[in-house]
């Protein structure tokens, strides 16, 4: 899909606002894998990396925490660039995988076919969009527009289909949109590496 037009985005946002009352609660364990440099308690769930570089469901400029609902999907998502680039094993770098508990009150479930139909997208359109190419060209991808619209509508997160694993599910959380009573907490945070500024040189 090419980049979107302004009037089409306005219509998309209106559809998202209409769907907001159908938001669901989420209470479960999520899994995330990050490079060792960012695998400290202060940064693991910050969403700062996504804010700097953008992602499938957010354009640069706002924070988003990407995680998966199972460890296999999380691993495939974490090594997506490695797999796509065809790098040799000698290029592999350490990563840290950890879990977190998420208790959220307003989540739009884009893995639900009925929800996708109401916002006007098929599963294939969401998982196959070349969001990084569109972003590199200076445009906002449709998936990024969906994420932005959900955040602006006051939703705390979106459940989304994995583009790396058929049937896999991811969750994208907007940490600055968590409402009272919603939480996002690391499991075994004390076991994570220290911040790089504290590494022994």
Task: From the structure above, extract its key features.
201 residues, globular, 6 strands
Form type = globular
| Mean pLDDT figure | 91
- Report the major sheet: 6 strands, mixed
Q: How many DSSP H or I helices?
A: 8
Structural class: alpha+beta
Integer tally of domains = 1
Report strand %. 15-25%
Number of strands: 6
What's the end-to-end separation, in Å?
47 Å
- The share of residues in helices is 25-40%
- Tell me the Rg in angstroms: 17 Å
Low-pLDDT windows of residues: none
In N-to-C order, the SSE pattern is HEHEHHEHHHHEEE
Architecture overview:
With 201 residues, the chain is an alpha+beta fold. It has one domain (6-186). The chain has eight helices and six strands, in the order αβαβααβααααβββ. The protein has helices at residues 6-19, 48-53, 71-78, 80-85, 113-119, 123-128, 131-136, 142-152; strands at residues 24-35, 65-68, 95-109, 157-161, 169-173, 183-186. Strands 1, 2, 3, 4, 5 and 6 form a six-stranded mixed beta sheet that branches. Strand 4 (157-161) and strand 5 form a beta hairpin. Helix 1 (6-19) crosses helix 8. The radius of gyration is 17 Å and the shape is globular. The N and C termini lie far apart (47 Å). The mean pLDDT is 91.
Which helices and strands occur, and which strands form pairs?
Layout: H1 6-19, E1 24-35, H2 48-53, E2 65-68, H3 71-78, H4 80-85, E3 95-109, H5 113-119, H6 123-128, H7 131-136, H8 142-152, E4 157-161, E5 169-173, E6 183-186
Parallel strand pairs: 3-4
Antiparallel strand pairs: 1-3, 2-5, 3-6, 4-5
Helix pairs in contact: 1-8
């Amino acid at each position: 899909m090419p980049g979107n037009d302004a009037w089409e985005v306005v219509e998309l946002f209106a559809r998202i606002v209409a769907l907001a009352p159908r938001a669901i609660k989420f209470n479960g364990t999520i899994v995330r894998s990050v490079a060792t440099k960012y695998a400290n308690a202060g940064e693991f769930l910050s969403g700062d990396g996504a804010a700097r570089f953008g992602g499938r469901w957010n354009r640069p400029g706002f924070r988003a925490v990407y995680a998966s609902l199972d460890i296999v999907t999380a691993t495939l998502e974490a090594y997506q660039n490695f797999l796509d680039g065809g790098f040799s094993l000698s290029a592999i770098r350490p990563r840290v995988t950890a879990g977190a508990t998420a208790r959220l009150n307003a989540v739009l479930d884009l893995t639900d076919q009925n929800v996708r139909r109401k916002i006007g997208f098929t599963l294939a359109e969401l998982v196959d969009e070349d969001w990084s190419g569109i972003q590199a060209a200076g445009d906002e991808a449709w998936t990024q527009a969906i994420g932005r619209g959900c955040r602006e509508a006051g939703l705390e997160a979106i459940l989304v289909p994995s583009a790396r694993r058929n049937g896999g599910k991811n969750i994208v959380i907007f940490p600055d949109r968590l409402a009272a009573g919603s939480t996002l907490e690391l499991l075994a945070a004390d076991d994570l590496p220290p911040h790089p500024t504290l590494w022994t040189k």
